[in-house]
Prior knowledge:
Elements: H1 8-18, H2 21-69, H3 77-86, H4 92-121, H5 127-154, H6 158-180, H7 188-214, H8 221-255, H9 258-273, H10 276-284, H11 286-326, H12 330-334, H13 341-348, H14 351-367, H15 371-396, H16 398-431
Helix pairs in contact: 2-4, 2-5, 2-6, 2-8, 2-9, 2-10, 3-4, 3-5, 3-8, 4-5, 4-8, 5-6, 5-7, 6-7, 8-9, 8-15, 8-16, 9-13, 10-11, 11-13, 11-14, 14-16, 15-16
Amino acid sequence: MLLTGPYRPFWAYVRSLRSNTVALNSAYTIGSYVSLAVLQGLQFFLLARALGSHEFGIVASVVAITSAFVPFCSLGLGNVAIMHLTRGQARADESLGNGLAVTTFTAAVGIALSLLVGWTFLNEPGVLGIVLLFAVSEILLNKCVDIAAHVFLGLERQLVAVFFYNFQMFLRTGCAVVLYLGWTHQTAFAWAQLHLAAGVLTTIVVLFVSVRLLGRPRTRFASAIADIRKGVFFSILFSAKSVHTDVDKIVLARLASASTAGTYTAAFRLVSLTCLPITAILFSLQARIFRRGREGGLTGTVDALRQLLHIGAAYCLLLAVAIYMAAPAVPSLLGESYRLTVDILRWLCLLPFFVVVQLMGSAALSGADAQPRVSLLHALTAALALLLNLLLVPFLGWRGAVIAAYGAQGFLIAGLVYTIMTRVQAERKANQ
Length: 432
């Protein structure tokens, strides 16, 4: 009965989607981000409740440090793999082997630098042990998983990459449940141990699956060096993104207190979670954006993202109202130690709009092989964010961190828009 009458067009549409690779990959990616958002939200809730604002603030400041070095440990070879594989310019087993080899070598440097920064900026007792555990988990193990996932994304086998990311988040959320139920000490150090255990198990499973599907990873020195020359700009880009996103947590932990950093991070994480729907769609379009950039340059990538930009901007403005209205409910969910989060959330309610606009601009330029310019803009933004936080936080506390976040994002958007406008005009003149 459902296959006849008024339902026939619907089922015909469903059958057409099943034969459409692009639609299926987009559906897998968006579905993955939905499940990741749910798991991240649950993990955040469990950790915030179990650790309290002080211990949660320690975790946030440590993760902010390690996150800055994560992109450098692969030197951007994951993104280069997507670019080359989508364009038919590389082998999957070689992309995987090169990525893992470079990641293993550079992760040691990243871990050492994380310990140095942690020793310099954080003064909590026992914090170096926490930095070491998170550095191994995030910089080495998490990046190995990410490299493998990027290879499958380049092959447009999104379902495998979706499995990798969701399996990892599922294990981490399970560890957060263990912490929340009190089966171990509810401290930042205990969470660092659980986080590392989840990372070890995830990496073992991911490498096993990758070898079964792609064969034994192969490393070729010449192609690895060539990929590094392109990938380093992706590394600078993503590391700079991490710095201008997370430097406020480090400065707050150093110049204010771990509790203030914890409440600020809770608000920031809640705001960031609301951006996931747009981020999911943008991520699913990544391979297509690289193809459009090769075919039509920057004009092609801008056209590919134009409609999503309009939808994302409208979504974020509506979201700002929702965040402002719902903010008072947060202490009842996370605990009374997070009461300050209400005011911080309201100050941050417009941040998703800034984030979505700069993500679109960065994606458009990167898809058109303008990574050097994008990397430069993000690096300048990171430096500006650090400077503003150091100047404002000692006098204004968390309000200074919020002002710095808006100021840095505004500077980045202005730079991206100016770059896009000038380059599009140049392309049009060249095509006349």
